[in-house]
Design a protein that fits this description.
heterodimer; A: Glutamine Phosphoribosylpyrophosphate, subunit 1, domain 1; 8-stranded antiparallel sheet; 5-stranded antiparallel sheet; 8 helices; disordered N terminus; B: alpha+beta; Glutamine Phosphoribosylpyrophosphate, subunit 1, domain 1; 6 helices; 25% strand
């Protein structure tokens, strides 16, 4: 790969053929953009916002991803409307908990990685391939994780080759495992998981799955100080994405609101 | 010291240019034209996987004729440039004009400095949110860029194609008419009927709700349009 004086990246790059990785391309052309932050001197701790609870669960048509919209910084609420669940491409979604700034950057790079691969090769990556690529990117963040900037995503989507929804979860070292039914991560992981354990069953319908997801987030918000519950008065509702054979779609606030009302109604 | 015969620069450029022209003339052609919903590219291409027409960015598409390996190289460079720009700045800051300029400079450097010029001709188009503001850039093997409006033909039969379209082209064609007329022009330039199965069609469609406006027409869609 040679860069001509005009800065136009020409040539095949790599031993043979074009490297379809956007991450590699940025690392080569704009190393300062991805090399990460240098370690703080003297062990200083910079405060930064944290994204809290996200979860994913399978349903009959694919997978549902949901997350509260709160970010905390120490004991303060940094943001009550922060998106933490994103479409990674047309057939997969990524939900993140942990250091918000770093997480958003990883999501942005991951989205571009998938789009770039698709444009360069003319094919979409397999779901397995996307999950592996994300693991490598999380592993690349490990030096920062050691300094407290931990990013732990949930990833999943519709596997077009197997014709089913799949969920993967990660740890800070880039470890990657597949989940069979549901998974939660972030500060409200334990209450959310407990709720999912009681409510989840195989073959949920889309509406049921959305309700189960909302209920788990409500439970997480009740038990965990850092998780923000739905707040109808201020129009704050969890972000929910559904990935099915037709692709990713976002669940509108009205639908989340009625799921929330059903959950609360059943409890009163 | 090796003996280098003197070749006047005029002769050198002419030889290179003739060489590139001959290479391009052997290949097939591509038509680019504006229609009511955006910009359409049509080519004759027996392969359904080795594309002449592809996506560069959200609103930008690419078409190339000539030597496949060379325009594929350019296409990849264009995707890289666009994705890097979009990542470093914002998605709306990626413009066809910048990419066309990048191609122009790269091709001009290759034309003057390398052993052999690229035997390619390319089109870069950007669809605007309203009709009449689309951009189509035509870049030659030596880096010459021209800004095209309405329609353009490139490749082996560029001149006959342009002549054929000059007679028929009308502003604001719908997609089906544009496809039919483009295929008709291609067939008349080639002097034979082109099978619907070997038509490659890609378009920038501003009516798409997605961020990425590029889509391909499948063989079935092309066949339905041509028989309709």
């Amino acid at each position: 790969m040679t860069d001509d004086p005009a800065g136009f990246p020409l040539g095949a790059g790599g031993p043979i053929g074009a490297n379809p990785s956007f991450f590699d391309l940025v690392s080569r052309n704009r190393p300062e953009a991805v090399k990460g932050l240098s370690p703080p001197h003297g062990g200083g701790d910079v405060s930064h916002p944290h994204g809290t609870t996200v979860l994913g669960l399978k349903y009959e048509g694919g997978v549902v991803f949901a997350g509260d919209t709160r970010a905390t910084e120490g004991f303060s609420i940094a943001d009550d409307k922060m998106e933490k669940v994103f479409a990674a491409d047309d057939y997969s979604a990524i939900a993140i908990a942990g250091a918000a700034g770093q997480a958003i950057e990883i999501v942005k790079l991951f989205q571009l990685e998938l789009e770039h691969y698709e444009k360069i090769t003319g094919d979409r990556l397999s779901l397995e391939g996307k999950a592996n690529r994300l693991a490598q990117m999380i592993r690349g963040n490990f030096p920062l994780a050691l300094q407290g900037l931990v990013v732990v995503p949930l990833f999943g989507g519709f596997d077009e080759r197997r014709n089913e929804g799949r969920i993967f979860y990660y740890d800070a070292t880039g470890g990657r495992w597949e989940e069979d039914d549901y998974r939660a991560t972030g500060s409200g992981e334990r209450p959310a998981k407990g709720s999912l354990k009681k409510r989840w069953r195989p073959g949920l319908s889309r509406d049921e799955a959305i309700r189960v997801a909302v209920e788990a987030l409500v439970d997480a918000a009740e038990e965990d100080a850092a998780t923000g519950g739905p707040d109808p008065a201020r129009g704050i509702f969890p972000t929910i994405l559904v990935v099915a054979a037709e692709g990713v779609s976002s669940v509108p606030d009205d639908e989340v609101r009625s799921a929330y009302e059903a959950v609360v109604g059943a409890r009163s | 010291m090796a003996f280098m015969p003197y070749v006047p620069p005029e002769q050198l450029m002419k030889d290179r240019s003739d060489f590139a022209h001959k290479g391009i003339a052997r290949g097939k052609s591509v038509v680019g034209l504006e229609h009511a919903d955006g910009v359409l590219f049509i080519a004759e291409n027996p392969s359904s996987t080795l594309h002449k027409i592809s996506e560069i960015y959200d609103r930008i598409a690419f078409a190339g004729v000539g030597k496949y390996s060379e325009f594929e190289d350019l296409r990849i460079a264009g995707v890289r440039l666009a994705d890097l720009r979009g990542y470093s700045y914002g998605r709306e800051d990626v413009r066809a004009r910048d990419i066309a300029n990048g191609y122009s400079q790269a091709l001009s450097t290759i034309f003057t400095q390398q052993m052999k010029p690229y035997e390619v001709e390319i089109l870069v188009a950007e669809v605007a949110s309203d009709y009449g503001r689309n951009e189509i850039y035509h870049i030659l093997f030596d880096g010459t860029v021209t800004d095209e409006h309405g329609f353009v033909g490139i490749g082996g039969h560029a001149d006959t194609l342009t002549e054929a379209l000059k007679g028929t082209f009308q502003e604001g064609w719908d997609l089906a008419t544009a496809v039919k007329e483009a295929v008709k022009a291609l067939s008349s330039a080639e002097g034979r009927e082109i099978e619907p199965a070997s038509i490659e069609a890609g378009l920038l469609d501003r009516t798409r709700s997605q961020r990425r406006k590029f889509r391909r027409l499948s063989d079935d869609e092309v066949e339905r349009i041509l028989s309709g």
